[in-house]
Amino acid sequence: MNTIIALLRGINVSGQKKIRMDDLKMLCEQIGLQKVQTYIQSGNILFQSTIEDTEELACLITEAIQQKYGFAVETILCTPADLENIIAENPFQDLPEKGLYYTLLKQTPDAEKWAKLLESTSTYLPDRFAGAGKVIYLGVLAYGNSKLSNNFFENKLKVVATTRNHNTMLKLIELSRAF
């Protein structure tokens, strides 16, 4: 059994795409996921599955939500080890934890788009970002006031993105250890 963490993009934000976590848990169990646990209302799901193909798993969750709720929700999957590595490689560890955020991307962006975006980092000071692969590290004063949002990165890189704060990432790792 593989322990997987699903990060849903854009549910329960400003009254949009509302899904109750107990309903989401039940839906995931109905599609065959095991030991399902949700964490806070922003769409974090921990579960186990014998399915090893993460793309297949993401589609399974996305399609189940589409069928039940009638709206599309992008799903990004990772393992507890992925999250641990992401946190360990954060170049902004010198900043206060309350300003640390992680934007996870569904796929690795085009190298040219990545390079162009990374050239513009000084444009957004005092907020900072750095990236590699399928992760963007953020050091921001206040995420809600920052231009460095999911939509910003999705528009620049043309990939699906979802963001979590440092404490949520740590909690997801902690919860996954109980599996």
Structure description:
The protein is 35% helix and 25% strand. By secondary structure, the chain is of the alpha+beta class. It has two domains: 2-78, SP0830-like domains (Alpha-Beta Plaits, 2-Layer Sandwich); 81-176, Alpha-Beta Plaits (2-Layer Sandwich), CATH 3.30.70. The chain has a four-stranded antiparallel β-sheet, with helices on both faces. The chain has a four-stranded antiparallel β-sheet with strand order 6-7-5-8. Helix 3 packs antiparallel against helix 6 (166-176). The radius of gyration is 16 Å and the shape is globular. The chain starts with a strand and ends with a helix.
Helical proportion, percent range? 25-40%
What CATH architecture label of the largest domain applies?
Answer: 2-Layer Sandwich
Structural class by secondary-structure content: alpha+beta
How many domains, as an integer?
A: 2
Please identify the oligomeric state. Answer: single chain
Shape type = globular
Query: What's the arrangement of strands in the largest beta sheet?
Result: 2-3-1-4
Rg, Cα atoms, Å:
16 Å
